[in-house]
Amino acid sequence: MAEELVGTGGAASDPDGPDGVRMSWNNWPRSKVEASKCVIPVAASIAPIRTSPSILVLPYQPLRCKPPCSAVLNPFARVDFAAKIWICPLCFSRNHFPPHYAGISEANVPGELYPQCTTIEYAPPPLDHHSAQSSAPPPPPVFLFVIDTCLIEEELGFLKSAMRRAIGLLPDNALVGLVTFGTQVHLYELGFADVSKIYVFRGIKEISKDHILDQLGLSASSVRHGAAVGMPGYPKAPLTNGFHPSGSIHRFLLPAADCEYALSSLLDELQTDQWPVEAGSRALRCTGIALSVAAGLLGACVPGTGARIIALVGGPCTQGPGMIVSKDLSEPVRSHKDLDKDAAPHFHKAVKFYENLAKQLVSQGHVLDLFASALDQVGVAEMKVSVERTGGLVVLAESFGHPVFKDSFKRIFENGEQSLGLSFNGTLDINCSKDIRIEGIIGPCTSLEKKGTLCADIVIGQGNTTSWKMCGLDRTTFLTVFFEIVPSERSNQSGIPNPQLYIQFLTNYQGPEGQMRLRVTTITRRWVDGSNAEELIEGFDQETAAVVLARYVSLKMEMEEEFDATRWLDRSLIRLCSRFGDYRKDDPASFTLNSNFSILPQFMFNLRRSQFVQVFNNSPDETAYFRMLLNRESITNSVVMIQPSLLSYSFNSPPVPALLDVASISSDRILLLDAYFSVVIFHGMTIAQWRNMGYQNQPEHQAFAQLLQAPQDDAQVIIRDRFPVPRLVICDQHGSQARFLLAKLNPSATYNSAHEVVPGSDVIFTDDVSLQVFCEHLRRLVVQS
Predict the structure, then answer these.
(1) pLDDT at 716 over 70
(2) Helices then strands, each counted (H, E), the chain
(3) Which part of the chain is the Sec23/Sec24 beta-sandwich domain (predicted)?
(4) What phi, psi does 94 have (nearest 5°)?
């Protein structure tokens, strides 16, 4: 069976299809009991604003079903052209077309009814054409940089050069602000041109939003007392938003074109934090206060428009709110063991602080992006909640000079093909057929607590709602929606059950150019009789199922104490194989799996060994980082995180996929491993010796030079299209860096079986079971009576 399990799913060129939706089950069982027997949750991976050349954009408002349904007209609606009526497929209400649809007929249908337009986008003009508002340009993007200065000279130098490059790439109209922090927080008033003007906040104790605004002269009371209005150089202006005169926004946030010189000068003058660090102590760093000040400033100046706080952090927070470790070097930063034993004194307090920060940012519609570059931990595990709930980006690197940081940071600001398509202020609404309830979403979003009849009693991730906020989202943002099947007695009024179920995803968002858009995706799937295993098998997507399980298990490991993930996965796999496998009782040799399930055991084997489940070798920061990316990536990318891909390069054949097995190592091959977070080029012993002798530089060995170059070129293609940029590791057989490859391979040859190994191959020093042994045990347990 292990041999059968090795193939890879023949994915089409675009596995997500035109709608960007993949489901664990494409045929749904009709009852709750049958759904629970399916073991794998009924879930969908959705890409709210994925770009596709075929998406039709309509320049008018959508036509909606009557409340409380409010679904948008779509190709699955039944239309009576003579009576000018359409029937909503989700709630079966009859709706009249408005007068401006009078010209429709079977030969003349609007774009939203084209059968191929199940995903469509509306870009309506502003409602009031006569107002000045309609001609006003869309709001510019806002970038507030929050820079850590408790760094060594060299690191600060790397950070400054990255910042200079970023400022050069910003659109001219983008508003830019600057905060630096060390022992204290410095907020720069860029609009004060005469001299450098800085507001200083102490980093020791928490300060309220009102206090921050008072000190900056942006609160209602300070404006009344004349602090901001009438200051030299600022216009006298009435209060707007109850906050500030409109001119005062340009005290702290200036268009990039106007402040490029000022920012460059500030960066030139920027020094490492001058506060003395005692021997045996860490630097005093107040990350929490710096982010509070940044959030307060944006809340006063640009509430409700797309704004990003970009935090560049080079070490742990050691004072004030959000502190993760004390300044004494004798106290180590918390590990997974400390968290399990509840021996991390600062952890829960810091998480609570970042939860409150997340609530503030979500209410303002702003995003927190985190770029953490340090050899030790900086507190990503605590900050995870505020990054994930605002839809922020996260990058973890070893240094500000490392390509992982430099290239990822540059990608945020690039335009054209390399652009991430960063969008703002998204809200996602989900509507579905009567017998379906929504349990929740795992991914970068926040529940808006909009309860309704479609909410399930069970909550997974962000639940108890049919509406979610995504302050930041981009073309590659994916979410996982979990559904519950709850058939109602009246689900089929006519007595003939409707064979199709319908789900509609509505995403309102502000695009990269500032324009407001509504993306509507309507999908349909088939109801089947849950006792008929063949129909369920036919609609099973094993890649999506593996990723859904990985995300679900990661969430359970975070939320539930004493949760044994490996055991839970093993039991789930055994139950699934007993339900859908073919076998004779007590005869392991008779066990077979349908091709739609055949590589799931292999996925589970690799998931059990992956960094998502085996956390003992990673810090809490790394685990939080891996899980945040697992939760926001496409199914294809997430599968690579769980089960890396391996390519083999040799003289005798073109590059071919190789088994993810230690047997694939050979002294005359080069292997290219894509493990998503790292890309490894591994040279066999003989190849490495030839390279060290310089054969590739001799004209008669051109073929060898090409063999060395081919994996390098392929690695660059992988790196170019990925965010965050993966770490590139180039290593040789038996070298110290070879561990990056060996850790991912199936240990079919270990030190116990070293006598059977082919010369030039390798063994793995481990007591882990191999895939073959895993599958034998699985077979035996599944067929037990």
Answers:
(1) yes
(2) 22, 32
(3) 424-528
(4) -95, 130
